[in-house]
Specification:
It is a single chain. The chain is mainly alpha-helical and about 625 residues long. It is built from 24 helices and two strands. Among the domains are: about 220 residues, no CATH class; about 70 residues, no CATH class. Helix content is about 70%, strand content about 5%. The protein has a two-stranded antiparallel ribbon.
Length: about 625
């Protein structure tokens, strides 16, 4: 199957092109064609996994050369694919979760007249994401990076006849382009330092580069990651991106695109290992974002936006782990995989609730849905327990490993990062329990025209499969350090390090905070009656509901000053650049105007001028001969 690696990208890409070009005659079979293309990638990926697993750990890397791509001066880049434990982990996650979301979408988008286009965009996204993780160079990775940006723009703004949805898509696109500047600059620094952009040359030569060079590259890669993975300070787009259809949120904003930044950091481990300052900034960004996302999630009443804030926070955990260096790389990817299952399942559960409640998203208008939607309640509940980190569910085995790793080190760092991870666990328990209780428990708060009911099997079966993964996948992968051993050829072997607190103390403190957070949510939103309309609340609540005023801060710090700079540049261009050219042109015009007056249009004037000139010439000749 490794020889068919190219098909992982070609099949969904071809499907997307066919669905876009076939026209309305393909409307009836387009959804299942999209499902088939995504399912085929999972089959090929699973076969590649089995083949790679049969090799020795030292030989678990397969490079497939595609063609000579760019040759210009000293820059030579071939297009090729790299299959190793890291890239294959993403292939299996993207293809499996993506296929389940495709199946779910068949029912969810059944009444949408443009569902053929929707499935074409889904397949385009799958192809771009797989190119991103399979590329063997930073430049080819950048093609996939931009591809998922384009596909996400199309999917977020799929219902762009609503102005606010179109604006949300544009916001996501623009913020991500800011992050992309970091990846472009990083590639420029790589080429200047190593003369190449392929992983083998750049990562293999990182040990011989200066710390300053690696720090510059690392910080630029981090800038790219903050945009794609919605991390501080480029996280403001994620909540608005919930404007797209709910399957889009499950695919892009839970299991795939927002994890691309984590992939980039871990893939570039050799660079960050030689740049401790950049590594520290990565960990700091993760710690800040996991707290920010949790605080924002505590005040959101929109079920999808609450889950979006949760995604931001959980990606923060992964970013924190990646910033811890070799000890945290495997844990970052481990939590990324389990999170992909339980967060995708909860997003699909939210879509099931919306489907039954006439697209209502305000949790204050839900309540008591467990009776009418038993399967959705159970599957969502499994995801809820997993993200809380309740043993033995998946989140306990992945997120708690990050918390333990955050307490490893010397000086102030383990106390700051470990403390942030612990606090985040308690906040996560509160806002996710708040969401769960407001939606499925308490008194019914829906209107008379709403009649909640369970979704069809096309929607519930994917939710059940994801719930099974949320319950048991973490336990399976953690057994015997199976997952960390699988990633060792990429992340390297790491010896055990004792945290500053004993592991039983860390586990006990984490579970205590989780219990307190869940209990507080139950007292406020489960045992008490929820007000159908939110009150204004305190300043802290208002700030959290407004994403901690991130849009306003961005406008004040970047947009408005940027507008003033633009106006100054326009003025300088008009007054200096264009002014100099225009004044020169005006001078020539006046000079020409003065000479134009010699052209009278009268023949006798021209004859007189000619005779006068002739006489002058004759005079010069005569005088010159004397």
């Amino acid at each position: 199957m490794l020889s068919l690696t190219w098909a992982l990208i070609a099949v969904p890409l071809a499907s997307a092109l066919v669905l876009l070009l076939v026209g309305k005659r393909g409307d009836s079979w387009a959804p299942w064609a999209g499902v088939g293309a995504s399912g085929a990638t999972f089959v090929v990926g699973l076969g590649a996994y089995i083949e790679l697993l049969s090799r020795d750990a030292s030989d678990r890397s397969h490079h497939q050369h595609l063609f000579a791509w760019i040759t210009g001066g000293e820059l030579k880049v071939d297009a090729g694919l790299l299959v190793d434990p890291l890239s294959l982990t993403f292939v299996l996650l993207v293809s499996m979760v993506g296929t389940l979301i495709h199946v779910y979408s068949v029912a969810y988008m059944a009444e949408d007249k443009n569902r053929r286009i929707f499935f074409a965009y889904l397949n385009l996204f799958i192809a771009a994401m797989l190119l991103l993780v399979l590329a063997d160079s930073f430049l080819l990775l950048f093609v996939g990076w931009e591809g998922v940006g384009l596909a996400s723009y199309l999917l977020i703004g799929f219902w762009n006849y609503k102005p606010e949805y179109a604006t949300a898509a544009k916001k996501a696109f623009v913020v991500n382009r800011i992050g992309d500047i970091g990846l472009i600059v990083a590639m420029g620094l790589m080429f200047a330092a190593f003369g190449a952009l392929d992983f083998e040359t750049v990562l293999g030569g990182a040990a011989g580069a200066s710390e300053a060079t690696l720090t510059g590259i690392g910080l630029m890669l981090l800038l790219a990651a903050t945009g794609k993975s919605a991390q501080f300070p480029l996280q403001s787009w994620l909540g608005d991106a919930m404007a797209g259809p709910t399957p889009v949120s499950a695919l892009i904003h839970a299991a795939t695109m927002v994890t691309a930044g984590i992939y980039l950091i871990v893939r570039s481990a050799a660079i960050f290992n030689g740049a401790p300052t950049a590594q520290l900034v990565v960990a700091a960004v993760g710690a800040i974002t996991l707290i920010m996302g949790a605080v924002i999630g505590m005040a959101k009443d929109d079920i999808k936006k609450a889950l979006a804030a949760s995604t931001m926070s959980q990606i923060g955990y992964m970013m924190l782990a990646a910033g811890l260096g070799p000890i945290g790389y495997a844990f970052a990817i481990f939590h990324l995989v389990t999170h992909g299952f339980f967060k995708a399942g909860m997003f699909l559960g939210a879509g099931s609730v919306m489907h039954a409640m006439k697209d209502q998203v305000d949790m204050r208008r839900f309540g008591a849905l467990r009776g009418a939607m038993t399967i959705t309640w159970v599957t969502f509940g499994v995801g809820w327990l997993a993200i809380l980190g309740v043993p033995p569910f998946s989140g306990f085995h992945s997120k708690d490993k990050i918390i333990e790793a955050a307490f490893v080190g010397e000086g102030w760092q383990p106390w700051i990062f470990g403390g942030a991870a612990l606090i985040g666990a308690g906040l996560t328990a509160f806002y996710m329990s708040r969401l769960f209780f407001m939606t499925f428990h308490g008194k019914a708060r829906w209107t008379d025209d709403q009649h909640p009911h369970e979704s069809s099997w096309l929607m519930t079966v994917p939710m059940i499969i994801l719930a099974v993964g949320s319950a048991f996948l973490g336990l399976i992968l953690a057994s015997g350090d199976r997952f960390a051993t699988w990633l060792e050829p990429v992340t390297g072997h790491v010896e055990h390090h004792d945290p500053v607190l004993s592991i039983p103390v860390i586990i006990g403190a984490t579970l205590l905070l989780v219990a307190l957070g869940a209990f507080a949510a139950w007292r406020l939103y489960g045992a008490r009656e929820v007000v159908p309309v939110a009150t204004q609340g305190s300043l802290a609540t208002i700030a959290a509901r407004n994403d901690l005023f991130q849009d306003q801060i961005n406008e004040a710090l970047y947009q408005r000053p940027g507008q003033h700079v633009t106006r100054m540049l326009v003025f300088a261009d008009a007054a200096v650049v264009d002014g100099a050219v225009n004044k020169q042109a005006a001078g020539f015009l006046k000079w020409g105007e003065s000479w134009r007056r010699l052209q009278t249009g009268y023949v006798r004037s021209y004859v007189g001028t000619i005779l006068g000139g002739l006489l002058i010439v004759l005079l010069i000749v005569v005088l010159g001969g004397l």
